[in-house]
Amino acid sequence: MSTPRSGDGFDDRPEDQRGWSEPTHLGGADQGQGQGQGQGQGQDRQGPDAGPDRAWEPPGWSLPDAAPDRPAQQPPPARQRPPAEPEWEATPPPAHQQQPWGPPAQEQPWDTPAPQQRQPWDPPAEQDPPQQERRGGLFGGLFGGGRARAPRQPGAIEQVFTPKGGPVGPGDLAAWGQAFGWSVSDGTGPQDAPLVELTQSAPVRPAKSEVPSNVLRGRADGLDLVAFDIVSPYGRGWVATHGVTAAPVLGSVPSFRLSPARLWRHGTGGLLQIPSGDPEFDTRWTLMAAEDGPQVRRVVESPLVRQLLLGSDDGDELWTAAGFAAAIRPDGNRPQLIEHHARILAAVVAAMGTQH
Q1: What is the pTM of this model?
Q2: Cα(97)–Cα(102) distance, integer angstroms
Q3: Between the N and C ends of the chain, which has fewer C-beta atoms within 10 Å?
Q4: Which residue range(s) make up the domain with 342?
Q5: What average pLDDT does the structure give for the chain?
């Protein structure tokens, strides 16, 4: 039996290369042999940084040398405790005195005295002017470029008919009527029965549940007048919706309705429109009657009637029914409204030429 070490002639390698030997790159005994032949190959395997005493290793196998030690960070300085405050109070510095040659001292915020509470005897404070409201519309409201305008001021007629000192209640109105010798009733007596028919015939189309109330009877401007409120049930009480002043007339009374042209008219079927001959009056007021006649025409042809109606705010309506010539206006009755209606009814009754 032969071995690799036996020289049986089967090993064709030279004598100096037979047997096992450690590779050159591992630092074997035969490292010096073949350096001339494999110097270029060994240099390629070891890399350009490999030294003569350093074995070959793959690139990146060994870590780089450690950097020199960094200087240790200094610990933060110890926090010093603030000095204890003295228990005694320091004397405030003397006030700065103004020198005659120095600039005027400026007033500090803490030198301003606190505002005093307003007392009842103090004069009234000045009020800011009223804010102006902006005009709406396509370009005023949509694009914000509207022209500002002052708040609307009530006219002379509105100021007259607006209750002074708060709403006028039934007790106040009754006291006013009694001061002038007028009689008072609640609208449920026998003498108040015709007022129910007059209420239902009003041009404002009241509901069946609305009834006359707060009735006053007296005399003014040469007429016997009856003034009352049309009240509507509201919860457990009643609320006044319209104020009516009526004058009873004798004889034949033509049926007509005299209303502002701006108001919507109900139940005008079969009624005729009677012109007055005055373009300005016909633009603002409309007279509707069941038939044309001299009494009806005298109403709108009267200069006094036209003057009183054109001088108003077009807020009243007049009609005849149940033997009355009446005038109606929204909201409850008040002394100024009764006097206003009395003047108009006196002119209308005088124009019709009927007895009263």
Answers
A1: 0.54
A2: 10
A3: N
A4: 170-352
A5: 76
Nearest CA-CA partner of 337 in 184, 167, 160, 155: 160
Q: Could you give the strand order of the β-sheet that contains 237-248, starting from the edge strand earlier in sequence?
A: 183-185, 211-220, 223-234, 237-248, 324-330, 317-321, 256-260, 285-289, 272-273
Q: Has residue 146 been placed in a domain?
A: no
30: number of Cβ within 10 Å: 13
Cβ–Cβ under 8 Å, residues 305 and 296:
no
Separation CA 46–CA 24 (nearest Å): 12
Considering the domain boundaries, does residue 30 fall inside one? no
User: CB-side exposure of 18: number of CA atoms within 13 Å?
Assistant: 13
In the chain, the amino acid numbered 348 is: V
Q: Assign 307 a pLDDT band (cuts: 50, 70, 90).
A: very high
CA distance 16 to 149: 123
* Cα separation, 320 vs 156, whole angstroms: 28
Judge whether 253 lies within some domain.
yes
Task: Look at the chain and report how many structural domains it folds into.
Answer: 1
Which residue type, as a one-letter code, is found at position 28?
Answer: G
Q: pLDDT tens digit string along 1-56?
A: 555 555 555 556 666 666 666 666 665 555 445 454 444 444 444 455 545 556 77
In this structure, is residue 181 part of a structural domain?
A: yes
Which tokens is 3 given? 């071995």
DSSP string covering 152-177: PPP-HHHHHHSPTTSPPPHHHHHHHH
